[in-house]
Design brief:
Layout: H1 25-31, H2 49-58, H3 64-67, H4 71-77, H5 86-110, H6 117-120, H7 125-145, H8 156-168
Helix pairs in contact: 2-5, 5-7
Length: 169
């Protein structure tokens, strides 16, 4: 087969059966599809029972960025693999998100002029997006409340529609 090049630590021409390698998700998914089951895939460490128990104990203190900057995204994509414990993983992801969401929302609404780098350093990409969206909405609301926001104007779509309507009359 000449696939030994996939294992840079080996000088062998072929990969020996039972060899464990790390592949990117897209490649593992292609090699472990229902049509061609070339490889078997293990559940990544952050989604195994030990980590799920830590999440159940107190998910709000876990550094998800350290476990993987795309923790939720990868966790959702794991359903493409035939893991026996995928339902437990899905429940753990949902429970973790629910516990952490409240903390993220509270922090985004109460830290407008503060340094948030220590908080956001522990968030995964989805959580960072939610945090920054909440922070922006608070900032926009306060600007509106203190009348620092720009005057309300028609959207571009409405202006174009009115212009077309005038031209047709």
């Amino acid at each position: 087969m000449n696939n030994g090049f996939l294992d840079p630590s080996s000088d062998e021409k072929d990969i020996k059966p039972g060899t464990k390698l790390e592949f990117p998700f897209w490649l593992a998914q292609a090699l472990c599809s229902q049509k061609r089951h070339i490889i078997s895939v293990e559940l990544p460490k952050p989604y195994r029972i030990g980590y799920r128990e830590v999440m159940m104990a107190d998910a709000s203190v876990v550094n998800l960025h350290k476990l993987g900057p795309y923790f939720y995204d990868l966790g959702c994509k794991l359903r493409y693999f035939p893991f026996t414990e995928i339902d437990d993983v899905a429940k753990s992801l949902l429970d973790t998100f629910q516990v952490r969401f409240r903390k993220i929302l509270d922090a985004s609404q109460s830290s407008l002029n503060e340094d948030t780098s220590s908080l956001t350093a522990t968030l995964d990409s989805t959580e960072k997006f939610l945090f920054h969206t909440g922070l922006k909405s608070l900032n926009d609301f306060q600007s509106w409340e203190t009348r620092r926001a720009e005057k309300l104007t028609s959207s571009e779509m409405v202006r174009v529609y009115r212009k077309r309507k005038r031209e047709n009359d």
